[in-house]
């Protein structure tokens, strides 16, 4: 079975007073997930907005990834397959198959 699906992720960044906030929104067609991330510039450090963007965006994407894994775990359980007890254990399709 061949299948191609495209999911869109929109990343929104907001900066104010040394704090950068990010919101990552995944539109998977059947559902939408939103991840959030924040980065604060240490007052003793040089303010480099790009670094705040990268940190906040990375944290938002990480939050989004965690939600997506929980959705997959629930879906696996709904078809009778349990989620791995150890999150480091691979299940489903391996990276080698992608």
Task: Chart the SSEs and their pairings.
Elements: E1 8-16, E2 19-27, E3 32-40, H1 49-78
Antiparallel strand pairs: 1-2, 2-3
Description:
It is a single chain. This protein has 98 residues and is an alpha+beta fold. 31% of the residues lie in helices and 28% in strands. The protein has one helix and three strands, in the order βββα. The chain has one helix spanning 49-78, and strands at residues 8-16, 19-27, 32-40. A three-stranded antiparallel β-sheet has the order 1-2-3. A hairpin with a 2-residue loop joins β1 and β2 (19-27). The chain is elongated, with a radius of gyration of 17 Å.
Protein structure class: alpha+beta
* Average residue-wise pLDDT: 86
Q: Please count the helical segments.
A: 1
Task: Give a count of the beta strands, DSSP E runs of length 2 or more.
Answer: 3
**Tell me, what's the shape?**
elongated
Strand order within the widest sheet? 1-2-3
Termini Cα gap: 14 Å
Percent in helix = 25-40%
Give the H and E element order: EEEH
Question: How many whole angstroms does the radius of gyration measure?
Answer: 17 Å
Given as residue ranges, the uncertain stretches (5+ residues, pLDDT < 50) are: 93-98
Question: Biggest β-sheet: count, sense, barrel?
Answer: 3 strands, antiparallel
Strand content: 25-35%
């Amino acid at each position: 079975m061949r299948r191609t699906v495209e999911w869109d992720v929109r990343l929104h960044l907001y900066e104010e007073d040394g704090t950068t906030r990010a919101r990552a929104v995944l539109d998977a067609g059947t559902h939408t997930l939103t991840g959030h991330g924040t980065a604060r510039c240490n007052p003793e450090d040089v303010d480099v907005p790009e670094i705040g963007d990268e940190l906040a965006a990375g944290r938002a994407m990480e939050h989004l990834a965690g939600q997506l894994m929980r959705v997959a775990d629930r879906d696996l359980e709904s078809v009778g397959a349990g989620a791995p007890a150890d999150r480091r254990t691979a299940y489903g399709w391996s990276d080698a198959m992608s």
